[in-house]
Design goal:
alpha/beta, eight-stranded mixed beta sheet, Rossmann fold, six-stranded parallel beta sheet, 2 domains, binds nicotinamide-adenine-dinucleotide
Length: 436
C-alpha cells in the first residue's frame, strides 16, 4: 500500500488528532499542524490536549515510529499530497456557522506550497463552502495548487478511534473524481459503504444526519413530557417503539436534551441555511424549541419542589455534554448553571472527568460564585436538592442511603433517568426523572 504524505490542519483538535494518529497508524507520514502552540508543546512532552479512549496509545506509538509529527510551521506541509481541514466551525450568536477558520487554513496551505495537493474538508461546513473556497482560491490565483474535496466526519466523541476504524459510511464530495477517490481510498476499510457525490450533497449529508439525530432526541423528549402529564413511563415507551426495526433503539432515550460541540450548533446552522434559502425550517425549529424546554424542565422541577430557588443550595452532578468525554464545550450544563444563578441559587458542581472551569476551557467569571468539588457526595452535602446532568456510571452507583443522610432535603432531579423512581420513593428520596 502506498504511504502518503498527509497534512492535518487543526491537528491538535478532537477530529484532527484522531484523524492524524489513525492515518499515521496506517503507515502514512503525517504532519499535524495547529495554531495552538501550547497544545503542540504539550503533546511533544506527552500531554494529551483532551481525553479520547485509545488515542494516547496511538499517538505514542506513531510518534515513536516517526510517522506522526506535530508542527506550527506550515512549511512542514509543503510536500503533503493530501491535507485534511479539521479546524473548528463554531456557531455565531446568530446561529450561523463561523467558517473563518476553514478559509484561513485553506489559504495558509495554498500560499505556502508550490506543488499541487488535494485538500479535504472534514470540518462541518454549510452547503456551498467547498465551492465558495474554490472560488476564493481562483480569485487569489491559487487554484492550481489546491483541489477541494468535501469529506465530512461522522465520528462520536468517546468512540472516535473506533469509529475511524469502523465507519458506518464514508462520504466524499468532489468535482474531480480522482481527487475524491484519493481521499476515499486513503482510509476506507474494505466493505464500508461509500457515497461519492457532489460537494453540496456531501456537505448536506452531514447536516441532515445530525439534524435527524437531534430530531429523534427531541421527539422522545416531547413524548416524555406527555408521559409526565399522564403518568406514563418513557423507558417502557422507548423500549416498545425501539423494537420496531424501522425505528431502532438508538437516540430515543429521554433526558435533558442534546448539546455539545456538534448537534446543537449544526442544527442552528442548518436552520440558518434554510432561512438564507428562503425556506422555513418547521421541523428543525420545533426540535430546537423542545430541546430548550427540556433544559428549562430541570429547573422547573426543582422549583416545583422547593418553591423559590433564591439562596437555595443546589448540587450539580455532571458538567460534560456526554459521559465518556472531558468535553464541556456547548454542554447543556452551562445554560442550566446560568439559569440557576439567575434565580439566585448557590451552586456547587462536580464532574467525573473535569475538575474546574479552567480545565474545561470555560471562563469562570461567567459563573460567579460556583464552587467546584471533587466528588458527588461533596456536591450533595447539605444541599436542598441535586441535579444529575451526565450519565457517569459513578453517579448511577451512588450510595443512596449515604446521599439521603448528607443532604439537607433529599431531592434528586435526574436529567439522565439513572434511577428507579419506586426504589427512591421507598428510600424516602423525592425523585424527579424525565418522563416517568
Ligand atoms: N467533535 C466532534 O465530535 C465532531 C464530530 C464530527 C465533526 N466535527 C466537526 O469537526 C470540526 C472540528 O471540531 P473539533 O471538535 O475537532 O474542534 P476543536 O476545537 O477540538 O479543534 C479545532 C482545532 O483547530 C485549530 N485551529 C483553529 N484555526 C486553525 C487554523 N487556521 N489552522 C490550523 N489550526 C487551526 C485549533 O487550535 C484546534 O486545535 C468542526 O467543524 C466540528 O463541527 C466535530
Amino acid at each position: 500500500m502506498k504511504q502518503w504524505k498527509i497534512g492535518v490542519m487543526g491537528g491538535l483538535g478532537h477530529i484532527g488528532l484522531i484523524q492524524a494518529a489513525c492515518l499515521a497508524k496506517l503507515g502514512n507520514q503525517v504532519q499535524a499542524y495547529d495554531i495552538n502552540q501550547q497544545r503542540i508543546l504539550g503533546i511533544r512532552e506527552g500531554k494529551m490536549p483532551f481525553y479520547e479512549p485509545g488515542l494516547e496509545e496511538l499517538v505514542q506509538e506513531t510518534t515513536q515510529k516517526g510517522l506522526l509529527k506535530f508542527t506550527a510551521d506550515i512549511k512542514d506541509l509543503a510536500d503533503a499530497e493530501i491535507i485534511f481541514i479539521c479546524v473548528g466551525t463554531p456557531a455565531l450568536p446568530t446561529g450561523e456557522a463561523d467558517i473563518s477558520q476553514v478559509y484561513a487554513a485553506v489559504l495558509n496551505v495554498a500560499q505556502n506550497r508550490e506543488k499541487p495537493c488535494v485538500v479535504a474538508i472534514k470540518s462541518t461546513v454549510p452547503v456551498g463552502t467547498s465551492r465558495g473556497v474554490t472560488k476564493y482560491l481562483e480569485e487569489h490565483g491559487l487554484e492550481e495548487r489546491v483541489t477541494m474535496v468535501s469529506n465530512p466526519e461522522f465520528l462520536k466523541e468517546g468512540a472516535g478511534v473506533q469509529d475511524f476504524w469502523e465507519p458506518a459510511r464514508i462520504v466524499v464530495g468532489s468535482e474531480i473524481a480522482e481527487a475524491g477517490d484519493k481521499v476515499a481510498n486513503l482510509y476506507a476499510p474494505p466493505g464500508v459503504p461509500m457515497i461519492k457525490t457532489s460537494w453540496e450533497n456531501s456537505e448536506l449529508i452531514k447536516y441532515a444526519s445530525n439534524a435527524f439525530l437531534a430530531t429523534k432526541i427531541s421527539f422522545i423528549n416531547e413524548i416524555a413530557q406527555f408521559c409526565e402529564k399522564i403518568g406514563g413511563d418513557i423507558k417502557v415507551i422507548s423500549e416498545g417503539i425501539g423494537l420496531d426495526p424501522r425505528i431502532n433503539p438508538y437516540f430515543i432515550e429521554a433526558g435533558v436534551g442534546f448539546s455539545g460541540p456538534c448537534l446543537e450548533k449544526d442544527l442552528k446552522s442548518l436552520i440558518n441555511q434554510f432561512r438564507e434559502a428562503g425556506q422555513k425550517a418547521n421541523i428543525l425549529e420545533a426540535v430546537h424549541k423542545v430541546n430548550e424546554e427540556q433544559r428549562q424542565g430541570m429547573i422547573k422541577k426543582l422549583e416545583k419542589q422547593l418553591g423559590t430557588l433564591k439562596d437555595r443550595n443546589i448540587g450539580v452532578l455532571g458538567m460534560v455534554f456526554k459521559a465518556g468525554t472531558d468535553d464541556v464545550r456547548e454542554s447543556h450544563s452551562l445554560p442550566i448553571l446560568k439559569n440557576l444563578l439567575a434565580k439566585g441559587a448557590k451552586v456547587t458542581v462536580t464532574d467525573y472527568s473535569v475538575k474546574s472551569f479552567q480545565e474545561a476551557g470555560i471562563p469562570p467569571e461567567e459563573y460567579p460564585g460556583v464552587q467546584w468539588v471533587s466528588s458527588p457526595y461533596e456536591a450533595a452535602q447539605g444541599k436542598d436538592g441535586i441535579l444529575i446532568l451526565a450519565a457517569w456510571p459513578e453517579y448511577k452507583n451512588l450510595d443512596l442511603h449515604k446521599l439521603k443522610k448528607i443532604m439537607k432535603t433529599p431531592l434528586i432531579v435526574d436529567g439522565r433517568n439513572l434511577f428507579n423512581p419506586e426504589e427512591l420513593k421507598d428510600l424516602g428520596i423525592t425523585y424527579w426523572g424525565v418522563g416517568r
